[in-house]
């Protein structure tokens, strides 16, 4: 299957992408991984992207699309792939269609993870990270530490990252609504969108997604 995964920040796209890719036996292709791989390998596209990033500029769509195209054409993606974080806007979605058509491929589904805005804010703004080890992550409501502000694992101080503040989350949501959400209508016109609720436990959401994709 060739799938695009969409949803607001805090919908659990990364977590679901990993589980779904494993269940469907297809590679999980995320924009972040694409950038890191191309930059670390010193590819022409990676060097071009790094130049923009070092100057604090946005990487142009054509560079991102070029990286995605190269990755989708690798042997392990012959039987499908799951795109996470790409396309981010309608221009990228249109460019992806052109790339797929040139390779005589097409998307099978666009999985839309739906989460109420207030839940997104609660999920992200409630996150607390350990200063000693950023892999120690807690949540004031869903995974509270035994002692407020103290990491259960190592006793380090827990803090809220600046980009996890409610104000920043609402700004990120606004960007999502303006730039990324329109691709849902774009793909809905192609009868590709499958919308599921991303509320509940991780395995429940995965089961819901798998059932929807099988249909």
Automatic annotation (TrEMBL):
Keyword annotations: ATP-binding, Cytoplasm, Kinase, Nucleotide biosynthesis, Nucleotide-binding, Transferase
Annotated domain remarks: Consists of three domains, a large central CORE domain and two small peripheral domains, NMPbind and LID, which undergo movements during catalysis. The LID domain closes over the site of phosphoryl transfer upon ATP binding. Assembling and dissambling the active center during each catalytic cycle provides an effective means to prevent ATP hydrolysis.
GO BP: any one term: AMP salvage
Region NMP: start-end pairs: 30-59
Physiological role: Catalyzes the reversible transfer of the terminal phosphate group between ATP and AMP. Plays an important role in cellular energy homeostasis and in adenine nucleotide metabolism.
Domain Adenylate kinase active site lid intervals: 127-163
Oligomer status and interactors: Monomer.
EC number, UniProt record: 2.7.4.3
Residues that hold AMP according to the record: 31, 36, 57-59, 85-88, 92, 161, 172
Binding site for ATP: 10-15, 127, 137-138, 200
Pathway assignment: Purine metabolism; AMP biosynthesis via salvage pathway; AMP from ADP: step 1/1
Name of the coding gene: adk
Main localization category: cytoplasm
Pfam families, alphabetized: ADK (PF00406), ADK_lid (PF05191)
Phylogenetic classification of the source organism: Bacteria, Bacillati, Actinomycetota, Actinomycetes, Kitasatosporales
Cross-referenced InterPro entries: Adenyl_kin_sub (IPR006259), Adenylat/UMP-CMP_kin (IPR000850), Adenylat_kinase_CS (IPR033690), Adenylate_kinase_lid-dom (IPR007862), P-loop_NTPase (IPR027417)
Alphabetized GO MF terms: AMP kinase activity; ATP binding
GO cellular component terms, semicolon-separated: cytoplasm
Organism of this sequence: Streptomyces termitum
Protein name as annotated: Adenylate kinase
């Amino acid at each position: 299957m060739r799938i695009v995964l969409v949803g607001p920040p805090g919908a659990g796209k990364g977590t679901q992408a990993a589980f779904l890719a494993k269940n469907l036996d297809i590679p999980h292709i995320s924009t972040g991984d694409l950038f890191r791989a191309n930059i670390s390998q010193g590819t022409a596209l990676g060097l071009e992207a790094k130049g923009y990033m070092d100057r604090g500029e946005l990487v142009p769509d054509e560079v991102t699309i070029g990286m995605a195209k190269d990755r989708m054409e690798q042997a392990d993606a012959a039987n499908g792939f799951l795109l996470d974080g790409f396309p981010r806007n309608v221009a990228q979605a249109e460019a992806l269609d052109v790339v797929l058509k040139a390779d005589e491929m097409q998307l099978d589904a666009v999985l839309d993870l739906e989460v109420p805005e207030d839940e997104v804010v609660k999920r992200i703004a409630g996150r607390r990270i350990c200063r000693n080890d950023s892999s120690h992550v807690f949540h004031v409501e869903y995974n509270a530490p035994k002692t407020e502000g103290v990491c259960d694992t190592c006793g380090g101080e827990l803090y809220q990252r600046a980009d996890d503040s409610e104000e920043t989350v609402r700004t990120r949501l606004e960007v999502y609504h303006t730039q990324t959400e329109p691709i849902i209508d774009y793909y809905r016109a192609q009868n590709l969108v499958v919308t599921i609720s991303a509320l509940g436990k991780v395995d429940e959401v995965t089961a819901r997604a798998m059932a929807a994709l099988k249909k």
